[in-house]
Each structure stands twice: as C-alpha cells, then as structure tokens.
Amino acid sequence: MQLSNYVPVLNWGKNYKKSWLKGDISAGLTVGVMLIPQGMAYAMLAGLPPIHGLYAVTLPLMIYAILGTSRQLAVGPVAMVSLLTASGVGAIAEIGTEAFLGLAIVLSLMVGVIQFALGLFRLGFLVNLLSHPVVSGFTSAAALIIGLSQLKHLLGIDLARSHHVHEIVLSAVERFGEVNWYTLAIGLLGIGLIIGAKKISKAIPGPLLAVTFGILAVVMIGLESQGVKIVGTVPDGLPSLVLPTFTWEQVQALIPTALTISLVGFMESIAVAKAVQKRHRDYEVVPNQELIALGAANLAGALVQAYPVTGGFSRTAVNDQAGAKTGLASIISALLIVLTLLFLTPLFYSLPKAILASVIMVAVFGLIDIKEARHLWKVDRSDFWMLAVTFIATLSLGIEQGIGVGVALSIAVHIYRSMQPHVAVLGKIPGTDQFRNVDRFTDALETSGTLTVRFDGQLYFANLSYFQRQLNELVEARIPGLERIIINAEGISYIDSSAMHELHNFITNQQAKGIDVLFSGLIGPVRDAFRKNGLFTLVGQHNFYLNVKDAVEAPQTDADGRSANELALQTNLA
Amino acid sequence: MQLSNYVPVLNWGKNYKKSWLKGDISAGLTVGVMLIPQGMAYAMLAGLPPIHGLYAVTLPLMIYAILGTSRQLAVGPVAMVSLLTASGVGAIAEIGTEAFLGLAIVLSLMVGVIQFALGLFRLGFLVNLLSHPVVSGFTSAAALIIGLSQLKHLLGIDLARSHHVHEIVLSAVERFGEVNWYTLAIGLLGIGLIIGAKKISKAIPGPLLAVTFGILAVVMIGLESQGVKIVGTVPDGLPSLVLPTFTWEQVQALIPTALTISLVGFMESIAVAKAVQKRHRDYEVVPNQELIALGAANLAGALVQAYPVTGGFSRTAVNDQAGAKTGLASIISALLIVLTLLFLTPLFYSLPKAILASVIMVAVFGLIDIKEARHLWKVDRSDFWMLAVTFIATLSLGIEQGIGVGVALSIAVHIYRSMQPHVAVLGKIPGTDQFRNVDRFTDALETSGTLTVRFDGQLYFANLSYFQRQLNELVEARIPGLERIIINAEGISYIDSSAMHELHNFITNQQAKGIDVLFSGLIGPVRDAFRKNGLFTLVGQHNFYLNVKDAVEAPQTDADGRSANELALQTNLA
Description:
Transcription Regulator spoIIAA, 3 domains, 6-stranded mixed beta sheet, two-stranded antiparallel sheet, elongated
C-alpha cells in the first residue's frame, strides 16, 4: 500500500508534464469563471446568502485536488445537493435565519464525516443500491421541484414556500397579477442568453454573460427602483476559519439529510468521474478513495462556512473540454474565486436574483429525462414503474422520502423476483447433444423415465418453498414411470444452509420412492457447499456429472458404476 | 375454480368414510383433553385470565375445520403467539386490567383481518422471508424468555416484570429467600409428571395428569393456606358473543404486534401443516387458503373473547398420532371444551398456577435448539451469525425487534452477497469439450487471444459496477493480444434494464477496440431481454452460441460467417 494511493496528488505532482500546464490553466480559469454565477445561484437555491456558494469553492476544491483520484472532476455546489440542503435544513430552521446558515454548515461537517467514514470502511459499494430507474425518476422530479422553486425569483413575486409542485403552480396562477414584468423580462433574457451561448459554442461562458447583462441592465436602466430584486451587499474578503458549533439534537435531526446527501452526492460525483475517466485512461477512479476525498472536502468546507459540495456534471464536462489534465486546474479555479472574494464582490451588488434563477433553471431542466421513461416503457415494464413510482413519490412525499421509496421498492422487487426464479424442464434437441427448455424448443424431447430440470438462480431461504413446489409438481406429473431426476445446476449460483436442508429432505424422499437424484454442472462454490453438508455422500459421488448429456447417458446407478464418470469425480474435488 | 377450494370441508365432508370416524373421535377427545390445561396455561402466559384460553378453542377450531386445507392441524393458543401478545399488548396496557383484556381481543380481530387479507391477495409467500437461521435463533430466544417468565409462578414469588433475561434471573437470585417451597415442589412434581408421562408413552396426557395431581394436592393438603397461588374462580358458561370495541389509536399502536403475530403464527402453522401432510398425501396444503382459514378463525376468536390462535406443533402431532383423518377431530375437541365450559369450570378453582407454569416450561424448553447452531457453525458460518445475531437481538432488544433485526439482516446479507457474485475465467480441460474455472482446474487451459468468462448470478443494478470492474480488470490483463471475449451466460438468471444499459456500453467499447464480444448459453428470459434491447443486432446474431465450445471454435467474425451457427440462430428465436 503506497502513500500515493491515499494522496493521489503525489502521483501527478511528481510526474507533472510541462505540456499539461496550458490545459490546466485554461480549464481552471474557465471553470472559475463559471463558478462565480453558479456558486451564488446554487447557494440561493440552498436557502443561503450567495457568498457562501463562493466560500464553498475555495478550500474544498483544493482538498479534492490533493486527495481525489479523478483529474478532471470539478467539485463544488450542485443543484441536487443544494435542494436537499434547502429541504433538509428547512425542516428544522427558517430559511434566511442565522440558525439555518449554522445548520447548513454543520450539515457539511456531517456529510464530510459520513463520506470519509464510508470511504475508510470501504462501504462505497452502498451507492450501487441506487438503480438507474430510481435515479432517473428521482432526478427528473428533483429537477422539476428545483426549477419551480426558482419561479418566484423569475416572476418577482412571493410564492407559497413549498416542495409540492401543485402548490407552487397554484400559487403562481393565483398571484399572476402581481408579476414584476421587469424581473420576468430580465430572467427570460438571461435564460435566452445562456441557452443561446451554449448553442453557438460550449466555450462561451453563458452564465457569466447573463450575469454581466443583468448587472448592466440594473445599473444602467435603474431597475432596482422598478422592484427588481437584487443580491445586495456581498461581504468581501475570505471566509474566516471557524469551527462550527452544534448540539446533539441538531445532529440527530440532520442525520437523514446528511445520509441522503452523502450517498446522492457521491453517486453523482462517481458517475461523472467514471464517465470522464473513460476518455483519459492515464489514471483510475477509485470509489472508496473518492469518498475519502469528497469527505475531506466537505470537512474543509465546514471550516470555511460552506455548505455540502460534490462533483458536478456540467462544470466537470467544461473542465475536461477546456483541457484540464490534473487537479491543478481545480486549484487555479479556487484561486480565481479567492481573488474574486478579495476584490470583486462589490461588483455583484446589483446582480438581479432573476439572473441567478435563470442560471439554475437552465441547469436543471436539462436533467428531466423523458426519453429514459419512454425507453423503459418499451423494454422493461417493471423498471418503468420503478421510475414512475420514484418520480411520483419524490414529488408528492418529498425529496428524501422519494429516494427512500425508490431504493426500498427496487430492493423489494429484486427480492420478489428472486423468490420465483425461472425453472425449465429440459429435453434433447434431436441430432445434437443439447438439452433445452421444452417450452421454448418445440422439437426438444424429454428422455423417458427421466425428469431433467434446470433452476435458474440462487437457491436460498426466500425461494426454497417455490423450488420445492415446482419440483414436486413436476415429479408428481411424471409418476408412475419416473426413475431419475436430473437437476441441471449450472444456473444455481449460490445455495444457503436453509436450501441445503430442504435439498437433503427432497433427495431422501425421492430415494425412498426409488427415484435417483442426479446433478449436473454444479459450479465450484456450490460444490463446496455440497461437500460441507455431506450431499456428495448422500447422493453418491458417481451421480454428479459435468453436463446434462453425460447425466442422461449415464447407466442406471449401481454400486460400482463410477468408472463412467471419472472426470466428474475429479470435478467434485476441484 | 371450485367452491370446495375455498371451503375444503366440502371435500372431506362429501366423501367422509365411516372408517375415519373412530380415529377422528379418539383424536378429537385426546386433543380436547390436552387443550384444557394448555389453553389455560397459554392464556396465563399471554397475561389473560385462564378462561380466555378455553374460549379460544371453541368457535375458532370449528371455523378452521371448515376452511382449513390441513386435516390434522390442531389450532389454538400456542406459546410464541401468547408471548407476542403479552409483550405487544403489555407495552400499551397493564397486564391484568380490563383494558389489557380488551386489547388482546382487538389484537385477535386485527390478526384475523391481516391474515385473511394476506390470503385473499395471495401474499402468503411473504412468510418465506423468514429464513431457517433467523427462525431458529428467534425461537430459541423466545423459548428462553417464555420459560423464565414462568419462573415467578414456579417459585411462588413476585419477580421483576421484564422480558430481559438477566433482569429476571437477577431478581430471582435476590428474592430467593422468599421462595414458597410448597409451590416450587408442586411445580417441579408437575414438570416431572409431564416429562415422565411423555417418556413412558405419548398416549398419556401428561399435562392433564399434572393438573389433576395439582388440584388434588391443593384440596387434600390444604396448600392454599400455605401460600400456594391458585387459579381461583373460573367463570362458567359459554363466552357471550360481543363485537370488540376499539379506537383507531389502539389499532395503530397494535399494528406492529398484529403483523408479527400474523406472520410468525402463520409460519409455525404452515410448517407443521406441511410436515404432517407428508405422511398422508390424500390432500394438499394450500398456503394462501391456510391464511384465509387462520384469518377467519382469529376473526371468530375476537367474537368469543379469545386472543390470537394458530396451528401448534405439539397438539397437531398428537392429533395425527391419535388417528385424526379430517377436521371433524377438531370439531370434537371444540365440543369437549364447550362441555367443559358449561359444566366443569368449578373443578379448576383449586388448580395451582405452578402447574400451569410447569405445562408451559416443558413445552417451550424443547424449542431451544442448540444443535442447529452447532451445525451451522460447521457448515455455513454466515448463517450461524445470522442465527446468533437474531438470538441476541431477541433477548436484548425484544421479541418483535429481534425478528425484525433477523429479517432485515438476512435480506441485507442476501443483497450484499448478490452484489459480488462469483466470476470465473474458463479454460478447456485437455482431451474434453469441457470449459471450467482455471482457478479450480489446474489443467484447464485458456484459449490464446480469447477471454472466456462466466458470471454466476443475476446481473442487476446492485452488482453492475462489480461486473464491470471484474470484466475490465480481466480484459486489461490480456491486452495486447486479446481478440475476443466470450461471456458464458448460462449462470446469468436475470438481467435488468440498468445492466442492459451497461452491457451495451461494454460491448460498444470493446468493439471500438477491435475486440469481438460473443455470448454462449443465454437462457430464455435473458434472450428475451437481449432481443427487446436490441443486443442481438449490436452483437450480431451469429455471435451467440449454445455453449462455450461452439463459441471458442467459431471462426473469426465475418459478414457471412453465420452458417456455422444455425442452431444458435434458431435458439435466439426460441
């Protein structure tokens, strides 16, 4: 175990090539410029003063650059985590208060501790419990909620503070008469600028263009007096390093939110890191080290009064396209933000909130994924319903509940499916050595006096009684005249002690009726379990075959009928 | 669908044979005689006046006889359900109060509704989530708790009312000086009588013998004045039919207990019903109909002021051995209890509680299963820990929590295991057509330029990244020189949409590198998924083979290399 596994900066720092520098500087500056409007906008989405979004892209970025395994990942505030912060902290403190701000910082600390610990204990695999349909349904719903949450800034009116889509829409319709048309115009122009810039070239920093336009419009036309809401005074200077203070009650109340952010944030981050890594291949993305790096970044974030961060889709793509080769790009981005904090904050006084809303709205509406839903409807109906239920649960029950429902449902469906695995009766396809499912291959013929059956899936406590029932039905239907049962076990990937017990009973019962039970194609781990449980002795070593053909062609069992099956005997020992 | 499927009495009632009558009468009377002490004892265990244990074996037995599919199952109060009643109702009402009694009756109503609904909606399979190790650990712990809960009656002293074993034992040690030696002597003699009778012949009704002895001892020696606690006045006559009254708050509070009893009770009942059915074979045990029958029995129980019942081990065994052929035996048992209620209750006035305690203790200590734990330690360490954790959780956290921990743990372990299934690189065993795991078969040889890999288990969202990582590592280790990857898919029992998506990516990536991806041995349901997702087109129809050998021997892909693979083509359509 090398130190550089834990501090990947040692890898690229030692071997840094001059040729990388140009790309790193150019990407670092591009992303830094993007971060100014995005950082402030996402902080607003999270319910925090915009400046805290800038704090979040100082120290945390540098820490990730040192500890992270991805060389292009751009860490910082992202829409989903901001929304989770707003809804989670919003449930225990009023948005806009000092208490809310303090709790958001404590949340960053907690996410840091959780992610760091998950990485340390190598629990990164937990993120695999989030299936594609669940993530897709959750993301679409969250994007809808986020987009609508910005409607009030875009229209310039107070709307019902709610995460329920219908309440927001209703409230907007009711108060439509109060719309501030200057605000709406600024916001729509901002949206147009960002989308237009993207269409022309990805190199144009649309959001920064929109911000510049917004500030100029407010200053030059004097829109503030027309009721256009602006950001106002943005404190200048670097954040002071303060240890966050908290009570255990606060920590307890924040645990569900912190866990959700830890996993959802990690999932988003690892997905984009892996996607970008595929284009490079000069390094590996190591999930557990990524957790450690993100955890450390969030811990550092709590020190500089930031709220939770993670690796984001859009900025990482820009970072990569602008030529980032190492974490140096992120360090340069962070330095640009530091300079901004020191010298440029007064510029943002006149920035309209509607422009920040437009930045958020453009970012998230692209996340609503109708194509995936349509695709699943065609190819996998059960996964479509998983997506739909998660989507609806997120909209109706809430953000964290939605993802909880999705995960629980996908595990339940998985268990339910494994409770009734596919069972096939096999017959020989004439003219070949192949034995296939007689229900699918109409010319396949069962061997007389023999039931050949394939069980596809692991055999464990939850599908045991299904296995028994299926097997008994097949056996009953062939009595009298049944002489042997061949269980083709190549599809049985695992067998637990409960199943071993029942299999033992089944074999004993059949043997008592004079029916032989043979096995073919047992895989290694299952052979091990058979050996430990004494099933080789019960069944007879000579009744294990490598494939169905050998089993079917084997002579009827007699005490020394073993010679025919030497290879299988050898197999049982391997 | 015939009416007799839903009312099985029509089956045996119509075809009732005269020769069955003798067995039914003899078994019915034997079980009826057992029910008198057991019913009273288990009611005491449940925290109810003994008479309610007798009420529980009137109408419910008759209802089960009409609706149940087992012809030997003896329904009534059992130890586990009685304990669950005591702990569940005890958490919201004081044992011994009217409120407690009322809630126990409401509980019977709720269990009835839940079991009936589970049966109606064919959800009986849920009981399969209880694995053998979890049931074994839970049962042993519950038996220990039940046995110790009777210690106070056996010693004739007040002990701490607790479900924590160590508190009860500590309390007994502290107050040992207060032991009533007459009570203890009666109890120990009762235990001796029951065990002795069982040893001599199972036909001797040991508990009834103990009851008779107890009553005689109290009456003749005047033990009541020596402080021996007796049952006291037992109301005579049949229970009045009353609809239980309840509030929604009470129902809500009882839901966890009702769910646990519904499942645990059903599990005990179905297990014993299936075990007995194996000796008869003139009928089938239908799990969902059993739920309907037990549900109806519990609903009827609520009407006659009973508490939850289910099919029990010991009485069913006696019923079967005494010759029961149909549900008529249970009806006769119930009639005997009705006669007892009408005429014999005064006899039980002097019955010592220590005797009832001895009946319970003998019944439950037999349930403590150390053998199973020892067996699992040897053959399946992970299942051993499942048993141990459930045992300890039941003792330390409580009855319902224990089984909850067990079920959650066994599902978690199942998921965890399926997240990293067995993957094998295959090589050819010289002189055969067999391809086997090169790690186990030392003489198996990999084909040069070919990676042949077998993935054992379903491929779904949770093990996708594991699959990817394994495959990529194997591929990287063989570059340069790798020309084709053969995925032996006979062990892949299912594939979901997330996995399809990743498989698509993997194939595209390999093809871009000039590496062919071939598949062998796809099972039918997986072929269906491939077809729906367009993977046959992506991979090329001719790259699917029936087995590894054909795939390995196939010529390098060319546009019309299909003739070699006609059977496989046919397969893809089947």
